[in-house]
Structures are given as C-alpha cells and as structure tokens.
Write a structure and sequence with these properties.
Layout lengths: L2 H27 L1 H23 L7 H38 L2 H13 L5 H19 L17 H27 L5 H19 L15 H28 L2 H8 L2 H13 L5 H19 L1
Helix pairs in contact: 1-2, 1-3, 1-8, 1-9, 1-10, 2-3, 2-7, 2-8, 3-6, 3-7, 4-6, 5-11, 9-11
C-alpha cells in the first residue's frame, strides 16, 4: 500500500483546506490580529503536548536561539505577510504565490549552504515560476464574481506580500534546518518555540498605535472557532501527516506530493464558490506541481 504517499497528499489537502478556513477570520479580525490569535492557540496546544511528553529538555542552548530567529522570520514575518496577501488577493492567488517557497529554498540552499543546482532543478524552478505568473495573470475569468476572486489594488502589493511570505518561510526553514538535522530536538518542542516567539512578536506589534495594525472587529465564538480550526489543521494535522509520510516514504516523492496544495485548492474553491476556476488557474497550478517535482527530482 502507498500509505506514506497518501499521507503526503493528505498534508497537501489539509493545507489547502486551511487556506479556505482562514479567509473569513482573517478578514474579520484583520491579518495581524488573526495571526496573533491563531499563533496563541496553536502555542497553547503544543505547550500542553510538549509538557505532557516531557520533551522541553531537548531544547539545548545551541538549539534555542536559532529556533527563536526561525520563528521571528519564518512565522512572525512570514505568516503575517501571508495573511496580509490573502486579505488582498484571496486564497487561490495567495496559495500559488506561497508555493514559490520551494524554488526559493533550493536557491537559498545553493547560495548559503553551497548545495548543487542541477539542470533539472533549474528547469523545475523556471517551470514553477512560469506557472505562478500564468495563474496570477490569467487565472480569473471575467464572469467570476465571488469575493475570493476580487483583488484589492494595487495588485503588485499583494503579489509582493505573497512572495515575501514565501521567502520568509524559506529563510526560517533554512535557519532551523541545521538544528533539526541533529535529531536531538523534539519537533513539537521546536515548533512550540517558533510559534510562541511569533505570538509574542505579534502581541508587541499590536501595541503600535496604527489603524492598519489594530484589530478590525472583536472576535465572535464562530470566528474564534474557525481560527482554532485553521491552526489545528495547519500545525497539528498537516505537519503530522507530513512527518509520517517522511518516516517511510521517499523524500523526493513525499515532498512533491505535499507541494500539490495549489492544485488541490482549485476543486475545493470550485465546490465552495460554485464558480469553476479559469483555465489559466488550472494550467498554472499544474505547472507549479510539475516544477516542484523537477526541483525535488534534481
């Protein structure tokens, strides 16, 4: 049975669902307030788990500070930019832009760690970038009227935020990689540190007296429930599926399958909005998946 490959696809599906679940609370609360509440909830979940399993002790001094910086860049800056982009572009365009973290990670690995870039990898990067451009420029038909397909102008601001989110995610992963490669640090404890630092930074940021940063509306029980579900899907289910997939599947195949989120999101959006995505969206998402496959194959 292909149980590990199925788990990788399950991770991609969960992350696609997370994008849809997050739209309403992110727009109701504002991107920063939503992200702060989401991170606080996820940190509480992880803290209870890590305390129960007694794995806080795996966080040595050498591991702690890289994880702190990884949390500041990868989650505080990265997730904040992600949800700011989502509020401007909707889940489809944001998801396709965020998928650029795969080629960005490869390029950063080459620049910082001296990892080789093969011709196949370079081809994959070009194809993935072409898919992103195609999905953004030609991914909407004129008769699509759902609010998730609307764009807050100027377009380049939302695109810039989406790419910034992908870049921050890549940098955060690059910082954490040497720590996690030792095998000495519990992944849940590491995630708790990264997310806890992000929640703290967001709390400090929200003290700034600026209208763009303040909470837009008070949370309701429904909004709080969607926010908790968003965090649980992304951090608990999604990462658990991925780690299980990596425990027994081939890394290249698992990573490629888990990168199919932009393609999986399209039928989910079709079901949710009752509007079939444009041909450009399907072709662009397919190119992103093909490009990701070549990147990991190379």
């Amino acid at each position: 049975m292909f149980i590990h490959e199925i788990a990788a696809l399950a991770a991609a599906t969960v992350w696609a669902l997370t994008g849809l679940v997050s739209v309403a609370p992110a727009r109701h609360l504002g991107a920063i307030a939503f992200n702060r509440l989401r991170m606080a909830m996820v940190f509480a979940m992880l803290a209870v788990w890590v305390t129960a399993t007694g794995t806080w002790s795996t966080l040595s001094g050498d591991a702690f500070w890289p994880l702190v910086w990884s949390g500041v860049i990868g989650i505080f800056l990265g997730d904040t930019a992600l949800f700011l982009a989502m509020n401007r572009l909707g889940p489809r365009r944001t998801g396709i832009l965020f998928s650029m973290n795969a080629p960005m990670s490869v390029v950063l690995g080459w620049m910082v760690l001296g990892e080789a870039l093969s011709a196949v990898t370079l081809t994959g990067i070009v194809i993935a970038m072409a898919g992103v451009v195609l999905a953004i420029v030609f991914g909407k038909r004129k008769d699509q009227l759902h609010q998730w397909e609307s764009v807050t102008e100027p377009l380049w601001v939302g695109v810039g935020l989406g790419l910034a989110a992908a870049l921050c995610q890549s940098i955060g992963a690059l910082i954490a990689r040497p720590v996690m490669e030792t095998g000495m640090v519990d992944p849940a404890a590491a995630s708790a540190v990264r997310i806890g630092v992000a929640a703290l930074c967001l709390t400090v940021l929200m003290q700034v007296p600026a209208a763009a940063i303040r909470q837009a509306n008070p949370p309701t029980w429904t909004i709080a429930g969607y926010t908790a579900l968003s965090g649980f899907l992304a951090m608990a289910l999604g990462m658990t599926f991925l780690l299980f997939a990596l425990s027994g599947g081939e890394v290249g195949i698992v990573t490629t399958l888990s990168a199919t989120t932009p393609a999986i999101m399209l039928p989910l959006l079709w079901w949710r909005t009752r509007e079939m995505p444009a041909a450009g969206a399907w072709i662009g998402a397919a190119l992103v998946v093909i490009g990701s496959a070549l990147i990991f194959a190379g």
